[in-house]
Amino acid sequence: xxxxxxxxxxxxxxxxxxxxxxxxxxxxxxxxxxxxxxxxxxxxxxxxxxxxxxxxxxxxxxxxxxxxxxxxxxxxxxxxxxxxxxxxxxxxxxxxxxxxxxxxxxxxxxxxxxxxxxxxxxxxxxxxxxxxxxxxxxx
Length: 139
What we know:
Elements: E1 2-3, E2 6-7, E3 25-30, E4 38-43, E5 48-52, H1 53-59, H2 63-84, H3 89-96, H4 100-107, H5 116-125
Antiparallel strand pairs: 1-2, 3-4, 4-5
Helix pairs in contact: 2-5
C-alpha cells in the first residue's frame, strides 16, 4: 500500500479474514467507500475483508501515526480530567497562560496540529500524572 509517497507492506495474515492456501486472495482493489484510504480483498471462498490505511500505518509503526495516536489518547485523558476537575475553565486557562480558544483546540481530539507539549502542560495543570512505558515487541 502507498501512503505519503511511501510503499508500506501489510501481510494478509494480519487481515481479517486471513487468506490461507485453501482460501487464497483472488481480488484486491482500492475501496472508494473508504475514501481511497484502504483496500478490500476477496478470498476464493467469497469471503471478503477490508484493510484501512490506519492498520497499515500501525503495523509499520509509522512515527507520525504513533504521534497522532498518542495525541488522541492524551487528549481523551485531558477531557476526563477537565470534566472531573474542581478548577473552572477560566482558572485552567489562566494557569495555562492561554486563551479560551486555545484551550478548546487542545481539548479537541480531532485537532492534530497541537503539540504533545501543549497537552502535557494541560495535564500538568489538571494534576495528571503521565508515564510512558516502552516494551520490547512480542515475537
